[in-house]
Amino acid sequence: MTRRNVFLLALGMLVLMGMSTVQRNAYGAGGQSLIRDTEIENTIRAYAAPLLSAANLDDEAFHVHIVKSPELNAFVARGQRIFITTGLLRRAANPDQVIAVMAHEIGHIAGGHLARLQGALDDASNIALITQALGLVIGVLARDSAGAAAVGSGGQQVAQRSLLSFSRSQEQAADQAAAIFLDRAGLSSRGMAQFLNILASQEYLHASRQDAYVRTHPLTRERVRFAEEHVRTSPHAQAATPDRFVEMHRRMVAKLDGFLGSSPRVLAEYQDREPSISVRYARAIAEYQNANLEVAVPMIDALIADEPDNAYFHELKGQMLFENGRVDEALVAYRQAVRLMPEAPLLRTSLAHAMIESNRPELFDEALTHANEALRVDRFVPMAWRLAGTVYGRRGEMGRSSWALAEYNLLIGRSKLARAQANRALKLLKTGSPAWLRSQDILNETENRG
Asked: pTM for the full model?
């Protein structure tokens, strides 16, 4: 087994049906997972865009991964990938704090600090124990959903220090870069001072009670003083947060709370005499999570009436209906979501899934078109490959079906099944065709994993 393959262990999938809203698209090992959601990912990308421009980094090369974890943490890895936890997003009091964290992590990328992290990854076979959390991260870096097995706390501490932690000098350099990027973007750095002061309050807590961010990002009083001084001197210190960022933040937190929080608590906390969109959004999701569809659907319909061009509301309605067996009605909602946001691969995947589940053969070719369009934008959507394989099989194109299912199994960490499907595809496809060549690549990759 190669050094890289130390990390590629058995996958514990949480969800295989990959719908595009929060809970229906969670992948990972053990207690932690990655979630995919178009609205949340677009919100984070919107926050990052002016910072990436200020740092002269390519927006197209930037990737954001949302980790389903109550811990407050964020970290970067090779390939301009930023991992941010749902705990951090839900606990951030305002978008300024999330933007500040993004600026800091982009500072690590721009500063080339990942060279040391890459070295740690290369040498990690010498670490006796790898945690589930790090296994998840490494799996994503390898474009594989496989995660490392659960281990003891001693190995976790060693692995975290080796793979995620930066030195104090690197942390200070990332803070300085963040301040520059925020100024260039015309954004206030007050969120950075606020966030560091929150972390500073944990400085004297036992490590077991500290947020993960404190453990992986060394905190010093100099960092806090630097941020506070920058707020005093920056010409943009009093810059107003863009209104759209404020509203995007409210809706993102409401959505995460609705899906990940206790429904009774969400309904108790999200109340207002004149409820805002975000309050109504959280309540609609909570009622849906509570299997109260007769209440949830009218609530989302009211939101759609207020914002008929909001693709996320139509998507949520589609999910509510689809998961309760009302497939034909779900198709209408998903079609509208895709019409409003045609470049969103997760929305197209949801529509293709509903089309296939409708058992209407006249929709299968269209479903394949949507699945392929999703993969054109993001070829790392496992469900899109699975759906494509299903349609190819029903059309009698067994070679292409095997290839698509090989891609699907590769992405979810089922190497043996991926290898078997790739072998079958090689026997059925025309030698030298693009699908045949890709199947050969899959076969080679799975064989190398041992």
From this structure: 0.83
